[in-house]
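User: Batch of two.

Assistant: Item 1 of 2:
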Amino acid sequence: LAMPHASQAAPRLLVRPALPDDLPAMSAIYAAARRLMRSRGNLHQWVNGYPSDELLLTDIRAQRSFVCTTEDGQIVGAFCLLCDIEPTYQRLYDGVWPNDLPYVTIHRLASDGRVGGIFRACLSFARSKSAVVRADTHKDNLKMQQLLVQNGFQRCGIIYLEDQSQRIAYQLG
C-alpha cells in the first residue's frame, strides 16, 4: 500500500463500484503499489503482474471491485471486498478466529500514493457492510500489517492461498 507523506492533508475520499472503464486507472494503481512494495523490501507479494487485468475484470463483473476517488472523480485507490466466505480462511493455522460471525474480506487494497486515507476509506466501506472484517497480508508487507494493527485488527494466525503461499490473517470485530 503506497502512502504519501504525512504532511499531505487527506482529501475526502469516496468509494464506488469499479467499472470496466476504470481498468486502466486500476492497473496503474496496482503497478504503482507493486513498485512501492519492492522499494520497501516486499519482493514476493503481487509478483508476475498480479493482479492481472483479467482478475480485475472478473472482480468488476462480480461486483466485488471498488475504487476510491477524490471528490473530483480521480481514482486514487482500489480494492476487492468479498462478501462471501473466503475459502482460504476455512483453515487457520497457528491461531484461531475470534468468532464465527458473518464477515467481509478486504483483498487487493492498493493506492497510487497521491493521497492518504485509502485504507480508512476502504475500512469504513467494509464496516458499512459487516461488523466483522477480515484481511490477510504477506509477511513482508510491513506497511499493511501496521495499518491493520493501528486500526484495531487482531492478528489471528496463518492462512495459505491456493498456490500454497503463506499470509498473516487478521480480523476486526
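Item 2 of 2:
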Amino acid sequence: TITDPHRAEHGMKYYPGEVNLRMSDVVIINKIDSGKPEDIALIRKTVSEIVPAAIVIDAASPISVGDPTVIRSKKVLVIEDGPTVTHGGMKTGAGTLAAEKYGAKQKVDPRPYLVGQLKGTFRSYPDIGTLLPAMGYGDEQLKDLEATINNCDCEGVIIGTPIDLNRVIEIKKPSTRVFYDLQSIGHPSLEDVIDTFLVNRNILA
C-alpha cells in the first residue's frame, strides 16, 4: 500500500484506504521529499499501530513531463484530477507542481472560459484555485472539458490527470502530460522487497 503524507489523516477515514492498510505486508511512505515531518511521523505511528509487522519503505515521487518546452516561459492551463482538488482535500496536484518546476510564466485562470457542467463545479467548489479540474469521463463531461480547454487563452496545456486526455478529447493547443516516478530512499527499497518475495516463493534463484 502507498501512503501520502499530504493526506496523513485520510487513510483511516476513507474506504478503501483503511482496508488497504490493514491488509498490507509492505507500506510505502511516499513523497518523503515534500511531506511535512509531522505528517510523515503521523503515518509511521499509524502503520506501527495498525500493521506493526509490515515492512516500511520510504520513497519520493519526482515528477517529469513529456515536453518541458510546452511549459517553460509560457502561459499554461493546468488540468488536475477533479476529485483530488474538489472534495479530495488537496489544493494542488501534479500539474501545478510541473508548472512550478518547469518555469511556467503564468497559470491561466479557466473561469472566464468554462462551459456547461464545469460552471457548476466551480460554483460548488469556489476555492479550487487557478486550475481546471477534470470531472469524470462521461460524454457530456468530456465535451465540456474539451470546449473549455480550447476556449482558454493559453499557450500550453499541462495534463496532470491519471489518463492522457489526448486519448479521449481533441486538445487544439500544445500539451504535455505529467508523469510520476517512484524513487525508494534508503533500505529496504521496493526492489529489495520484491526480490526477497520472489526468492522465498522459488520464483527467482
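The CA atoms of residues 28 and 57 lie 5 Å apart.
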